[in-house]
Fold these 2 entries.
Entry 1:
Amino acid sequence: MLVLTRKLGESIIIGDGIEVKIVGIDGDQIKLGVEAPKEVKIYRQEIFEAIQAENRQAMQVEESLINQLKNF
Amino acid sequence: MKIQTKFLGEVTIDPTTIIEFPQGIPAFEDEKQFVLIPLAEKSPFIILQSVNTQSVGFMAAYPFDFKKDYAFDLEKVDEEKLEIDESDEVLVYSLLTLKDSLENSTMNLLAPIVINAQKKLGQQIVLSESAHHPLRYPLRSKEGSVR
């Protein structure tokens, strides 16, 4: 892993057209600004984990609800 | 061909309707083949059933029935993965998380299931966070319905 030290207002460039800038520091929170082409997806890592967890939960279904859905 | 389904027991399916999910579905990455089975006639609900594993079946729904203004742009990377050409029909479903009652149940609008109906390719797509689509959108009653 490449580790770089940055100060407030400084940024790094990744590949063509992706800029990640430190826009705020408040205690243990760091605010990042990301400029990237539209086709590049950006989401917090925990979002993907949340979707995995939601899918696992979606697998647990009460039998009685299925009957309710059938008559929806 | 006959398959065992989670909600409807043994069901006969047409093998040409099998949809390939090359990446599986997050948390179920090994499941690469699914079929869509309507829950009942005229039902807004549909089952996304794994062809190979009986216990892996999701209840899903057509999201636009529940949130009329739901919309998102399919990004180029996703169009490429799903090999979508202009003439291809694209199906969108949202997975449901069903709780003890319909009132407490939700649908996942953040990560819709997008299917290329012609090429029989599907994927659960995570939409960009900037669009603020909810992971748990309340199902409540169908919009425009008197129920």
Note: Chain B touches chain A through 39 residues (CB under 8 Å).
Entry 2:
Amino acid sequence: MATTTGVIRLTSLAVDATARLRSAELDTEARDLLRGLGLTDGSIVRVCKQGEPCVVQVRATRIGITSRVAGTILVEPMPFVALRGLK
Amino acid sequence: MTVAVLAPAAPAAVRPRRVALLGNPNTGKTTLFNHLCGLRAKTSNYPGTTTAIRRGTLVNDDGERQEFIDLPGLYDLQTSTPESEVARKVLLASADGPDVVVVVIDACNLTRNLVLCGELLSLGVPVVVALNMMDMAQSRGLEIDTAALSDRLRCPVVPIVARRRTGLDTIRRAINTASQLRQAPPSDMPRDEATLEQLTWWAENVTDSVIRAGALATRDDVTERLDRYLTHPLVGMAAFVTVMCGLFWVLFVLASVPMDIIEALFGGLATSVTAIVPTGPVQDLITQGIIGGLSGTIVFLPQIALLFFLISLLEDTGYLARAAFVMDRLLARFGLPGQAFVPLLTSHACALPGIMSARLIPNRRDRLATILVAPFMSCSARVPVYVLLTTLLFANRPALAGLAFAGCYLLGASAGLITAWIFGRTALKGQPRPLILELPPYRAPSLTNALLAAKDQSLSFLRTAGTVIMAICIVMWWLSAYPHTLPPAEATALRAQAAAADPEPARELLARADSLQAKAEQAGSFAGRAGRFVQPAFAPLGFDWQLTLGVVTSFLAREVFVSTMSVLEGGGGDSDLDAGVVARIRGMTRDDGSVLFTPATCAAALIFFVLAMQCLPTLTITRRETGSVKYAALQLGYMSVLAYIMAGTTYQLLHLVGVS
């Protein structure tokens, strides 16, 4: 589901797709936890699994997120790119 | 590396050098700490909090004492989580602050780990970086230039493999050197309360400049395939049920062997004391109060040790994070986190280890919700009570008795989940934290870590059991045993008859006399008097003074109900249920001669024992784990009132429809 031009919900991404994190409609505590895990604004994520849970990889970290939370994360799909942290 | 040598610190002889270990979760920080401090470590809550930190000491080759502090795993220092707050307090403490901080970094996840390292460097404390899991990095073809990394960070960087104890000597030397150095933060670091985004950008930049070959963010097909199965609604649930059945089997069946041994040892000890100490109050205090109380509590030690041993193994493998998502689908509907499944399942064996294992849950609100409802799960101490009451309720109808028995488990679990839902909207502040978890790589578990976790938790339990719980046990025993009552006239007469009778009939007469005296002593004790005093309050539940006394005495431990009933019926206080004991208890009558255990009374008593908070040791552990007596009071008040209302309603309804 597209929300604004080029920005979609994380749950709308296909498995293996990559996208840049734009924003998340979450309370401060949950947002801080995501940022601590590496999902900072502008970071690039790859979807490893959709459904319950949604699993994404950001750099070398794999993160499981309940689909309810994943649905609040807005991302901008990208053509396949190497994740940041690659040498 | 830019450093300056400090003048020798004058107070070095006064207090040991203090070293803090800091790092992200799953970086091998605890493994490193265990190898550095071994069995000397102690776990305790940071003052004023329920966040556990571990402390250990070692004496280095120069004879200098060093104190190590293992801080909780955390992702960054900025957030308002209890772990971050405790870490900030320890790191910034002016007088007792660490002389050196060892930051443990996962070499395979350099960028994210460097964010925390950057936050620490900006504080200006001497830092040593332990670059752990170098073996895994090498197996992935990753080459990290540690000298370049040391230059960029302006602090010593030591490559290690904590599991294999590789690099530990170098770490010790680096600690000794670093405390003598004043390190300036890297010049290119973002300053003045940098955001996580700025720190991440800096960490990426450092990572790019030190990796000579290989890639950090590789795709791991095996892990991804395993994750798909282990978090699948059906396959994942099947795997979860299998693992939890194994866990439950160990706690219920395997643990029974050492539990029986402990009981036998304490039994032998009591017999020895009886042989040495003259009969009287002192002997009673030692054998029944102290040894009995200790035995009744320490008997749970094997379950606690085994539980934490297995939890540590499961956590190390990375499976627990996946299992949390499987159970989150169900538990989130009631406002409980997915991780609550371990405490709730374990509470079916015993609420004490169940509540202690709630430490797995990172969010305090979610942890409180789990602790508050854990005692609703039907523990093993309820089993003899359920067996007795269901057998009395459905005499000669074993199928129905079995259904009622299973129904008790279902009722307890349902009450717990509904209570969690209610508390989540009333007593507990804030919203449940949605499940967001790092899914660490699957790894072989560390046996050393598991053994040390079991040791830590066992000692922690023993400290509580040996102090507060034992004191409670002694008080409850005293209330049940004193004041001594004179033998009833009937018992005295029987003894007189026995003195003149042949040996065989004399034994029977003496047994009857003992039984009558035990009943009289039970009824005349403070607990017995309390039972009679509060009986009117239990009348709406159909309880007479004997059943009320059973409720009062079982407040120490639920299974005491069976032995109390056995004594009141005139038996010998057996807690083992055989057909004879059940038959005798079924024949108990009220003071007016009517049958005591009618179907309505049995059903009410059964529901009361499913829902009531009849366990003082559990309340003690709740107070300790929540850090507040108010949650123990809430647990006691809520469960008691709910049990009373539900049991009373059941009795009155059954009475109304003529089932009595």
Note: Residues 587 and 595 of chain B are 7 Å apart (CA to CA).
